Amino acid sequence: MSTEQNEGTKKIQKRSMTPERRKRINRLKKMIMYTVVLMILIPTVSSIILGVRLYRTKRTVETMAGQISFLEKALQDSIDAADRAEALLEINEGIWREYEAEQYPEMIQEQEENFENDDIAEEGRKVYLTFDDGPSIYTEELLDILARYDVKATFFVTGKGKGSYGDTYRRIVEEGHTLGMHSYSHEYSNIYASLENFQSDLEILRNFLYNETGIVSRFYRFPGGSSNKVSETDIHEMTAYLDAMGISYFDWNISAGDATNMSFSSDQIVEHTMSQIPSHRVAVVLMHDAADKRSTVDALPKLIEAIQELDDHTEILPITEETMLIQHVPSK
Ligand code: ZN
Q1: 134 C-alpha to center of ligand 1: Å?
Q2: What pLDDT, on a 0 to 100 scale, did the predictor assign at position 262?
Q3: What is the maximal distance between C-alpha atoms in the chain?
Q4: This prediction's pTM
């Protein structure tokens, strides 16, 4: 009953609407419709646009990640190449060293006076272990061994200027070994081309070592020895220069045999060296500290023990101002 009444009222209302009112309602309806459509459309379109952008960004990130890993690989490749080049350089140095040792073993000029075994008992025998060409990957190990036996040696170093051996140069000095010079570049063709080249190479090494260690080295070993036949500069010009600089140069009177083409085993190095030491009152032993000289490292403990067991009069010392000059070509 009441429903019929309500419907009746609505019909009456509808019928009584003016055209303006209807228009307004229609406009309102349209507005509501548009609003609803826009409310649906805007988020949808936005989502699509964002989705596309996100996809593109993702692609870009993926591409960049690919490029980064490519660059990383390229970098690693060039690091590997640099390592290989360095190893090759060390091998080339090894070839030079062979040259040193093979050419001149017979030219060694003994500056020792003849001695009797009684002299040894009285004055003692001095053995100087010297290592050329370092620092190398083995220097720390050599230093460990020397420390274990409390033995001091002499390192005739070259200039490894990449900064990676700074601690090693310092350790040589700090642990009481003698820091000697063996040219900065170790390139015979350069340092022996002229006196000027020799001087400038020496100057560079001297300053370099001073910066690394705070020490001004006063000892030199000519690459190839003072008796080398490679030099295009008169050796006497160079020794006079060293003399003027207050630098003593040392050759050797015993070659441990680690510089030869045959590359001795560690036992052969010990045997070869020990066969020569008894005939010297002052023995300067040439050895090498280089990447291809593993057998020298292995020989060192055995060699030290053999020298220490030789007799009661033999001692191992680092080169100092007091050391008798052992020179193939005498300085004066
Ligand atoms: Zn050398």
Answers
A1: 9
A2: 61
A3: 150
A4: 0.68
